[in-house]
Amino acid sequence: MKHKYDDYLLLSAYLDNELSDKEKEYIEKRLQNSVELRNKLAELKQIKELTFSSKKELPENHYFEQKVMSALLEEKPKAFFNKKWIPALGFTAVAVILFISVKINPDFYKNLIDTQKNVISDYTGSLKPLFFPSEISNEDLFNFALFEEIPLNNNENQVLKIGLDNSGKEYFEVKKADNQNDRNNLNNFLSKLNLSNDKKSKVDSLFKNYATQLSKHILVGDDNAIAINPQVWNLRKALVADFITLSRNLDTKNFDRLIQSFKIKIPQHSVVWNKSLDSIQTNNYIVFTPDSVFTSELTLKMKDLAELKQENFLKRNSEKRFHRIDFDSVFNQQDRRIKIVRSPNFVQVQVQVEEIEIPEIQIPDFNSLVEIIEKSVRNQPNLNLVVQENLNKPRVNQQRRTLVLPPNDVNLDSILELQNRRFENSLKKKADREKSNSDNSQVNSETELQTNDNDVNEDIRLELEKLREEVENFRKQFKNYIKQDSTKEKSDVKILINNIEI
Amino acid sequence: MDSEEKQNEKEMEQPKILTLDDDFSLIKRFNEGEKDVFRILINRHKEKVRNIVFITLSEIDAIDDISQEVFITVFKNLKNFRYESQFTTWLYRITINKCKDYLRKKIVRKIFSSVDEDYNYQTAELDEKSDVRMIVRNAIDELPDKLRIPMILRDIEGLSYKEISETLQLDLGTVKSRIFRARESLRKNLEPMKKELLA
To answer: Which of A197, A199, A183, A191 is nearest to A138 (CA)?
Structure first.
């Protein structure tokens, strides 16, 4: 058997022309002598040919090298590190760099933050008080307390207005003054009070104190930047409270008489504001710039300001007194106003928008609707309910199809009663009609229609009956509920029942 | 006249003849930095590689992707090429190995794939079964890889036993015996359809 297998193996290789000369000679000899081997060779040859014939031509791919070459170009150079470590290496590298940079340059973080702050400091750096304490007159402060306005620019009649909107939120706006206030309010006021010089100086010192405070609350810078401390609202409340308290103490009698005509808005809990004036000073300012509105913490050194004041005072004497706050660069239209709403949780900037044009809306033609409604209720019998004074019992006016009721009787029962009567009437009429029609062999189509209507009416009547039962049940339950309750509540409920008829 | 024609024929044939030196010189140039030479190498051998992939896998869809992988592997490893054996044997070895990788992955995929996918695959093949060539090819595909691959390299691609032994890294004797066993198995597989095949 082994011998045979070896021969077959040689035959296969012989077919492939893969035998040595010696092997070839041997197998050719064997083939001559053996039919079996010759058959086997033919068989193997057939298989070999079949295998070759099974070859399917593969269409050539002309773009193959192009594709491979571009794929090779896209392949990234072999990574030095194992790819999965790359993220870890990245973090480590960042950590090391940060560590080293902090070690070498301890101000690293500070510089980093400073760079970010630069943008803000561009605006806030040049900020200084809009007016110095000496520039704020008592009259200005008095008007500030009284009318919630402080003039920013006399020539342009521009004012900073603070106040409360309808929802109780505080706001301020930079706008043109609505009306020219009388510029002599304070003197008028004080002249009405009977004050000695000593007392007048007390009022002066009060205003002086507030002038200092107020100058810190409104800052202006170059580039039209303006910074306002939100605490300006509280400052005004405190000023009003302090001023009222002081002037009332000075001359109670005249003050009480005067205050009526001035209509000063006295803040609630004014004394609290007075006491906590010092504690309400914060350094958070809302800064308005031509391109943004932001909040920023600003520290004012009053000593520096004093020097600045000297410098500026000389300069300003020759100039106009107030800065001009011009928002035109932000908002193109002159009349546009910005409005800041401050609540305990947020600061909101409101910008007045242009009036919106409302497109014309197609309103349905009501006349045609009325026609449709009338058509649909044509077959319904009229329901009239009349309430008549001085009437003890409900009465039915058959001719006018009207139910007349005494005033106290208009309730659900009466309406149900009315409905019931209506349906009973219509049923009666129907029965009458049927009676008269039964003699005629021809059935009137109109009658048929009415019959159908009456079937529907019957359904409604049954439903109303059901509703009445439910109302009755509810009433019983309600009565039980009243009985169970306490006497006080009982009386309350009784009042309720008396008011609302069920 | 005759000699002239013969010479002309020779001249025309010459570019087609691939000698040992041609591949070696190209590889040398490549390793000396002329990376563009690789394009010529691909052009020369792409069809052989694609055909080997095709007959080994009997799948048209995967041919170009696997062939591309083959050449990328060659590109990356050409610097390590020793000029001891023919470039083609080395190339075919890489090709066969890539095909084996693919078949291995396919088996794993098959285990996890749903029955439906398998079914569709089978029916698609059945449609063409009327063709004698398809019958034979299906019978060849049923052979185990270790028998099938040496046989198709010999009978379809026309590789010598030596080339096959180098490509598959087998003894010459083993190649000889496997090719014979493959033919015997194929004959047995085709026995039931003998009549149709002869007709």
So the answer is: A183
**Which B residues in the span 24-53 are in contact with A, Cβ-Cβ below 8 Å?**
38-39, 42-43, 46-47, 50-51
Tell me if A191 sits within 8 A of A344, measured CB to CB: no
Q: Which helix (H) or strand (E) holds A295?
A: strand A293-297
Nearest to A152 by CA among A234, A226, A67: A226
By the CB < 8 Å criterion, does B55 face chain A? yes
State the count of interchain CB pairs (< 8 A) between A and B. Answer: 93
Residue A214 buriedness (CB in 10 A; 0-12 / 13-18 / 19+):
buried
- Residues of A with CB below 8 A from B68's CB? 64, 67-68, 71
Structure-token pair, residue B166: 């180098």
Structure tokens at A128: 């200084």
Which residues in chain A are closer than 8 Å to B39, comparing Cβ atoms? 65, 69
Question: A-chain residues within 8 Å CB-CB of B133?
Answer: 53-54, 56
* pLDDT tens sequence across A392-423: 776 766 666 666 766 665 666 666 676 677 77
Question: Does the distance separating the beta carbons of A58 and B47 come in below 8 Å?
Answer: yes
Assess A253–B contact: CB distance below 8 Å, yes or no: no
H helices of chain B, in order, are 2-13, 20-31, 37-57, 63-77, 87-112, 115-126, 132-141, 145-155, 161-168, 172-190, 194-198
Predicted model pTM? 0.38
Cβ distance of A56 and B133 shorter than 8 Å = yes
* pLDDT tens profile A278-319: 444 566 677 766 666 666 667 665 555 555 555 554 444 444
Sequential DSSP letters for A346-384: -EEEEEPPPPPPPPP-----HHHHHHHHHHHTTTSPP-E
